[in-house]
Amino acid sequence: MQRLNAQRSTALVCAALLVAGSMLRPSAAADAPVAPQRILGILGGMGPEATANLYQEIVRLTPAEKDQDHIPTLIFSFPQTPDRTTAIQNNDRSIIPYLVEGTTRLEKAGASLIALPCNTVHFFHDDMQRAVKIP
What we know:
Layout: H1 2-18, E1 24-25, E2 35-36, E3 40-44, H2 48-61, E4 73-77, H3 84-89, H4 96-109, E5 113-115, H5 125-131
């Protein structure tokens, strides 16, 4: 239950931060496709179920009247990331390249901010934050 409440809180924050800026706008070029102003990135796969639960909560809590009102979202699911608890307990820094890979891929793909549905991965937040310019 505690994990679900944490995910609900994260979903609410994501929805609040992005809902106003999630409307589509025309690109500068006349023949270019429409592009979202802001895109939510989710670094997931640690476990995949937590990622799915967070995304479901974001969809459920977004005040959308139609599909087009939902928040543009990129999900990078990387279940091959080593176990976070083991890395923390053993002070094992070999996990950092996996986390940095995920955050940089999301940033390069256009994410405006990154949500982390895995509780233990927050231990490595500072290392991931140094790798990207987005929150």
